[in-house]
Automatic annotation (TrEMBL):
Keyword annotations of the record: Endoplasmic reticulum, Membrane, Transmembrane, Transmembrane helix
Any single Pfam family the record assigns to this protein: CHD5
Main localisation: endoplasmic reticulum
Name used for this protein in its record: Guided entry of tail-anchored proteins factor 1
GO CC entries: endoplasmic reticulum membrane; GET complex
């Protein structure tokens, strides 16, 4: 999308296409040496073109991995700061009888019952978002048919 082919790649592809046209016009039986030479030249250019495109693909993958790492690190840093700043303040107050068995877990680390702490709220939101993402998108990032 943002990574276009280089001029060298485009030139090689057009050269390969021209050589293939020329190869089709040559009768294999009558002019075998010329036909074989053109075939070898096409294979050589195709191999070089594939190497260049593989190098470009590798650089794209590396850039995506670095970007994902940076975004995840920033997200982790912001989550840590929010948890540290608001660790004793409740995000949501509810009646403790609604969540009786897990009331103390939801209020962790503040300890007061009937509240959901920032730490637990971030965990709940993160789990919900990942579940929604897994429902609508497959591992390759494209939309699944429902």
């Amino acid at each position: 999308m943002f990574y276009k082919e280089s001029v060298e790649e485009k030139n090689r592809k057009t050269e390969i296409a021209e050589l293939k046209k020329e190869l089709k016009s040559i009768p294999m039986v009558d002019e075998f040496p010329k036909y074989a030479r053109l075939e070898r030249q096409i294979k050589k250019l195709s191999t070089e073109s594939n190497k260049i495109s593989q190098a470009r693909s590798q650089s794209i993958v590396i850039r995506k991995c670095v970007l994902i790492f940076i975004v995840n690190f920033i997200q982790l840093l912001i989550s840590g700061i929010v948890i540290w700043m608001y660790k004793s303040e409740p995000v949501v107050e509810i009646e403790s009888k609604w969540v009786f068995p897990i009331s103390s877990l939801l209020s962790m680390p503040s300890g007061s019952s009937g509240v959901i702490s920032a730490f637990v709220w971030i965990i709940i939101c993160r789990c919900a978002i990942s579940q929604i993402h897994s429902i609508f998108f497959n591992d390759f990032g494209s939309k699944q048919s429902l």
